[in-house]
Write a sequence for this structure.
């Protein structure tokens, strides 16, 4: 099932290459499945466009990817008396060049919630309604779908923070379906936090992704992989992740041939369920800087404050018996807020799960804002005194890392840094800011900042 905007496509059949269909047929069946889970698996996936005759045009904002498909999947084992195993494994896939995973998950769940995956009537009805939808636009759209109305809100940029976070005073009533934000995380933190090795690992992953360094998430099923990656990328907003983001990859994925065959030329964050795939990934990286590996737990118990290093190394060894993948030490600079972590521990102990997601997202959104404040302060000093006309580009003088670091030394930063003394904390601060200035994250954030300022100046962002 392929979703494409109705006003951006031809009426002809989609000329997908046979190779693309074969790859999808393999890619969307999980390599590994948690035996404790008997329900549907919902996950998302990114794959290169292997159909040269397909032109992924997106002339207006929000712009879809020109060479990448985003797929949302529902995997299910359905009873089938004609099969030798008395069941069949089936997957429903919704593919688009727009990255709206939460919205697309809502659609595929709606299609499959009342019947089998392969119900032709439900699929025909869904495709007919989707074909009549208008092209996506920035802002809110109300779309009819299978007897109900779905409210979709598309932000001016996918890296704007706290998308989809509903305040209690404005939460939707039981009779009203809440608005879905196109770029909101696919899962709330109350669903995924118990898979983390420790609460401290959230801070470590936050720093790695904020610097656009490579991260590998190893879990027992693709749903957990993709949900954790979606949540971690969201934590760093408004800093866009500048590397390759693949929420779930398999052994046959084109990610290896296109990105790692001749050595990594760009950082990545990938979700993996096959431990031997992790071994292959580490071998391809060779002497390159190793990624930060997040070994997720089974999720049955509350997440400890700090991970037991011996137990963590034993778990990684068990994943690859006889050939363990090393667990490198992850250098970090931001000091974890012990009061915040204690509040998370208390919420889990008291089963107050509904407060976990807004608390975590607001906390790290605040850290990201505090981290970027010195940059905004410095760029204000670089702004030209010449007033631009509406829609014109704001003029900034050239950025200088040395001048910025001098400005940072004079005015400081509100982010709490590690260190037992003021000098040690200043060293941690300078190390993190220097690494950010030299990372791809800085340029992706600056590009977003300048583009949004230009659109705001032209009055394109609305009120």
């Amino acid at each position: 099932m392929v979703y494409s905007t109705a006003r951006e496509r031809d009426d002809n059949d989609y000329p997908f290459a046979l190779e693309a269909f074969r790859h999808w047929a393999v890619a969307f069946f999980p390599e590994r499945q948690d035996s404790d889970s008997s329900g549907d698996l919902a996950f998302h996936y990114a794959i290169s466009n292997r159909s040269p005759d397909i032109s992924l045009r997106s002339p207006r904002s929000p712009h879809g990817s020109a060479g990448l498909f985003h797929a949302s999947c529902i995997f299910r084992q359905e009873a089938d008396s004609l099969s030798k195993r008395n069941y069949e494994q089936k997957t429903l896939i919704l593919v688009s060049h727009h990255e709206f995973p939460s919205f697309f998950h809502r659609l595929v769940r709606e299609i499959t919630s009342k019947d089998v995956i392969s119900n032709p009537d439900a699929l025909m009805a869904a495709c007919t309604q989707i074909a009549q939808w208008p092209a996506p636009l920035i802002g809110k759209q109300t779309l009819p779908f299978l007897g109900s109305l779905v409210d979709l809100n598309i932000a001016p940029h996918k890296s704007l923070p706290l998308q989809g976070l509903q305040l209690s005073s404005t939460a939707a009533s039981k009779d009203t379906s809440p608005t879905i934000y196109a770029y909101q995380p696919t899962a709330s933190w109350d669903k995924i936090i118990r898979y983390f090795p420790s609460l401290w690992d959230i801070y470590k992953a936050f720093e790695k992704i904020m610097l656009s360094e490579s991260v590998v998430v190893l879990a027992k099923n693709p749903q957990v992989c993709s949900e954790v990656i979606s949540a971690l990328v969201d934590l760093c907003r408004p800093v866009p992740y500048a590397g390759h983001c693949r929420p779930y990859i398999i052994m046959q994925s084109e990610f290896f041939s296109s990105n790692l065959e001749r050595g990594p030329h760009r950082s990545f964050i990938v979700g993996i369920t096959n431990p031997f795939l992790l071994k292959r990934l580490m071998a391809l990286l060779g002497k390159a800087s190793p990624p930060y590996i997040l070994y997720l737990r089974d999720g049955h118990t509350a997440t400890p404050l700090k991970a037991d290093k011996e137990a963590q190394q034993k778990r990684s060894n068990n994943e690859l018996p006889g050939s363990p993948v090393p667990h490198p030490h992850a250098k970090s600079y931001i000091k974890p807020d012990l009061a915040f972590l204690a509040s998370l521990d208390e919420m889990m102990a008291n089963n107050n799960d509904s407060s976990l997601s807004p608390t975590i997202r607001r906390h790290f959104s605040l850290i990201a804002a505090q981290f970027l404040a010195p940059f905004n302060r410095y760029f204000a000093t670089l702004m030209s005194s010449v007033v631009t006309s509406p829609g014109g580009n704001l003029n900034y003088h050239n950025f200088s890392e040395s001048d910025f670091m001098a400005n940072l030394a004079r005015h400081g930063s509100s982010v709490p840094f590690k260190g037992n003394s003021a000098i040690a904390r200043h060293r941690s601060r300078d190390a993190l800011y220097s690494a950010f200035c030299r990372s791809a994250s800085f340029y992706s954030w600056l590009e977003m900042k300048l583009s949004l300022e230009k659109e705001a100046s032209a009055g394109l962002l609305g009120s």
